[in-house]
Amino acid sequence: MPDTELTLARTGGRPLSRILFSTEQIAERVREIGREITEAYPKDEELLVLGTLKGSFIFLSDVVREIARPMEVDFLIASSYGGGTVSTGEVSLLYDSSSVLTGKHVILVEDIVDSGTTLNRLLPQLRTHNPASLEVCALLHKHIARDLVLEPRWVGFDCPHDFVIGYGLDHSEYFRNLPFIGVIQP
Ligand code: 5GP
Ligand code: MG
Ligand code: MG
Fold first, then answer.
1. 170 lines ligand 1 (CB under 6 A)
2. Model-level pTM?
3. 114 catalytically annotated
């Protein structure tokens, strides 16, 4: 359990209803995923890890350091939520990576799969660049989406149907810096 005073200092006094995944649990799962990704691709073929900003920035930075092979890292910005806690169904690409995807193994790193709208909009766009392969690595999966164009090959944790924060995930841009994943009190 993290120190309560330190947590309140990080949230500006806003209490959490509960902690879902601790720093230690996350670190262990990230190591496992890193090992699996390392073994999943031939070492002499190109790998591009493509993170979706901003939510995946912490997960991506931890997971790439557990992948023991050469790779490229890049980001794109897909925005579906605005400031609220309910998906609008619209996904806009605010920044489109200029990396070459063609012929490379591409792993799209997502913070969380909720309605699946983001993945269902992004994946077909990425496929038009003819990557050698395209997989998704998601920190969290709510298992709400019924018609995902591609199930994530790697999932950190199955996630309850709450609005979660921390370890990169925000509420109105705050709480990304919490070193664990939790639910804030409404
Ligand atoms: P989807 O398109 O799958 O509905 O949602 C994807 C995006 O919505 C995620 O990448 C994330 O930015 C945001 N999102 C969905 N659920 C949550 C949640 O529980 N907490 C936070 N902080 N963001 C979420
Ligand atoms: Mg995201
Ligand atoms: Mg957000």
1. yes
2. 0.93
3. yes
